[in-house]
Specification:
Oligomer: single chain
Shape: globular
Number of strands: 0
Order of helices and strands: HHHHHHHH
Number of helices: 8
Largest sheet: none
Distance between the termini: 66 Å
Radius of gyration: 19 Å
Helix content: 40-55%
């Protein structure tokens, strides 16, 4: 019994000590590396963009922009880490329901992806920008279609 407890304690100490060597910069949330090979679930649109989750114009604008670039969003990570908490597999998932309207990170990343797509950037280039945190510069108050 003492050996078992000793081994368990050693495992816990090892895990705790190894945490200092983790690299949060390499902790990229879930995304799809390639374009979708099947029809994606729809992004909320039209009359769905009303009610308490859509009380600000930028929330509606973010969804309208997301609807213009669904394949790009499918290839982008979401740094609110909803992949862990909600099982999302990409930024696209955020806009399939109301989560995107509740989360400034999702909206900023979606708007960033739309704007960069309009500039001719590829999904991989956009992903690199998202990973660098360029989406944080998006001002939601000025976001319009």
């Amino acid at each position: 019994m003492k050996r078992l407890l000793g081994c368990a304690a050693l495992v816990l100490v090892t895990l705790a000590a190894s945490a200092q060597f983790s690299d949060p910069a390499n902790d990229v949330p879930a995304y799809n590396a390639a374009p979708p090979t099947h029809a994606l679930p729809p992004i909320m649109s039209g009359t769905q963009l009303t009610g308490p989750y859509f009380s600000h114009p930028y929330q509606i604008a973010a969804y309208k922009m997301a609807a213009k670039v669904p394949g790009v969003l499918h290839q982008e990570p979401c740094y609110c880490h909803c992949d862990r908490a909600m099982g999302h597999n990409s930024l696209h998932s955020c806009f399939e329901g109301t989560h995107g309207a509740e989360c400034a990170t999702c909206m900023k990343e979606g708007i960033y992806a739309y704007r960069e797509t309009k500039k001719g950037r590829t999904p991989a280039q956009i992903r690199a920008g998202i990973e660098r945190g360029e989406w944080e510069k998006v001002d939601l108050e000025t976001a319009t279609m």
